[in-house]
Amino acid sequence: MPDVEPPGWLRSWIATSLASTVYASVGVSAGAILYLVAPYFGGQPWGWFFAGTCIPPGLMALVNTSDWMFYRRLRNLKQLFDDGLISEELYEQHRKRAMDWRADRLYGKAPALPSRPRAEMKKRTKPAITSQPTEKPPAEIPQPEGQPEAT
Question: Long-range contacts of range 21-25, CB-CB < 8 Å, 24 or more positions apart?
């Protein structure tokens, strides 16, 4: 029986799709489908290809970042934990990551605090407590003549 291999362009297409993100794979695949059907509708294939690459990722982004999908993912994660398929540690880790991701999308990322190497940090010293005041009491302020003293 002869070895049948897919053509080179198909192998390249599959390798590119598998190495891409979900958004890129869906966009390029939809663009390719529209490229193939464009001549039957009298359209320009490359114009249809580029339009087709934009439509699915945009719709997917809207759905995947919606509140509905967020709650659905949390419910599915909780179900995995309740069924004993993931550990409590893994459940908490994924739940925290999901909550942090959602907070970043709603409120923006928190600014990163600058950190200093530990060797550069100065040790804090508590001020010595003394029984004698360190400041002089304020001098008396002379009052203008004819005005009563403030009490």
Answer: 22/60, 23/56, 23/57, 23/60, 23/61, 24/57
pLDDT at 92: 92
**Which residue, 15, 36, 35, is CA-closest to 25?**
15
Residue 145 pLDDT: 72
The rounded percent of the chain whose pLDDT value lies above 90 is 23
Q: Judge if 40 and 57 occupy the same domain.
A: yes
Whether 146 maps to a domain, the answer reads no
Residue 46 domain-assigned (yes or no): yes
CA distance 79 to 95: 12
Given a cut of 70, whether residue 81 has pLDDT beyond it is: yes
- Tell me if 145 is assigned to some domain: no
Same domain as 25, residue 59: yes
In angstroms, the CA 146 to CA 35 distance is 98
Q: Which domain holds residue 20?
A: 8-64
What pTM was computed for the model?
Answer: 0.48
| Winning range, highest mean pLDDT, from 22-26, 81-85, 123-127 | 81-85
> Which amino acid makes up residue 63?
V
